[in-house]
C-alpha cells in the first residue's frame, strides 16, 4: 500500500542521506573499513539521485520516481545485509540493518506519482 507522499519521501531522502553519511561518527563505528564506507557511499548516492529525481524536492528532475524507488530498495537491501556480506557484523550491524529496513520500507510505501502541483512548476 503506497501511502507516503513523494514530498514527504523527498524530505526523508535528504535527511536519510545526511544521517547515513554521518552515522559512522554519530554511532561510533568509524573504523575506516566497510562498516564506515558502505553507509557513507550509500548516503551520498541517496542525496545525488534525489537531486535528479522528478519529484517536488528534485532540482534537475530527470529520474522517474519509480526508478528512484527501485534505487532506494536496492540501497536498503545492500545496507541491511552489508554487515554480513562485508563481514563486519561482529563489530557493528544494528545501525546498518535498521536504516536499511527503513529505506526498504520507504521504497515500498511511497507513491510513484508526485503531487500534481510539482509537475506544474517545472
Structural write-up:
The protein contains five helices and no strands. With 122 residues, it is mostly helical. α1 packs antiparallel against α2, α2 packs antiparallel against α3 and α3 packs antiparallel against α4. The radius of gyration is 15 Å and the shape is elongated. It starts with 5 loop residues before the first helix and ends with a helix.
Relevant terms:
mainly alpha, 5 helices, 122 residues
Q: What structural category characterises the helix and strand content?
A: mainly alpha
Instruction: For the record, give the distance between the C-alpha atoms at the N and C termini, rounded to a whole number.
Output: 28 Å
Round the Cα radius of gyration to an integer and report it. 15 Å
Mean pLDDT: 95
Which outline best applies? Answer: elongated
Question: Which sheet architecture does the biggest sheet show?
Answer: none
Q: How many individual β-strands?
A: 0
Which consecutive residue ranges, at least 5 long each, have pLDDT under 50?
A: 117-122
How many DSSP helices?
Answer: 5
Strand residue content: under 5%
Helix content: 55-70%
Offer a concise description of the structure:
The protein is an all-alpha fold.
Tell me the layout of helices and strands.
Blueprint: H1 6-26, H2 34-51, H3 65-85, H4 94-109, H5 116-120
Helix pairs in contact: 1-2, 1-4, 2-3, 3-4
Amino acid at each position: 500500500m503506497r501511502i507516503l507522499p513523494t514530498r514527504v519521501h523527498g524530505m526523508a531522502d535528504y535527511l536519510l542521506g545526511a544521517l547515513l553519511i554521518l552515522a559512522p561518527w554519530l554511532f561510533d563505528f568509524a573504523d575506516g573499513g566497510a562498516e564506515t564506507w558502505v553507509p557513507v557511499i550509500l548516503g551520498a548516492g541517496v542525496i545525488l539521485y534525489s537531486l535528479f529525481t522528478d519529484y517536488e524536492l528534485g532540482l534537475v528532475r530527470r529520474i522517474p520516481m519509480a526508478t528512484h524507488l527501485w534505487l532506494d530498495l536496492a540501497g536498503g537491501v545492500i545496507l541491511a545485509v552489508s554487515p554480513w556480506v562485508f563481514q563486519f557484523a561482529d563489530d557493528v550491524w544494528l545501525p546498518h540493518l535498521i536504516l536499511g529496513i527503513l529505506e526498504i520500507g520507504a521504497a515500498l510505501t511511497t507513491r510513484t506519482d508526485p503531487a500534481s502541483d510539482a509537475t506544474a512548476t517545472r
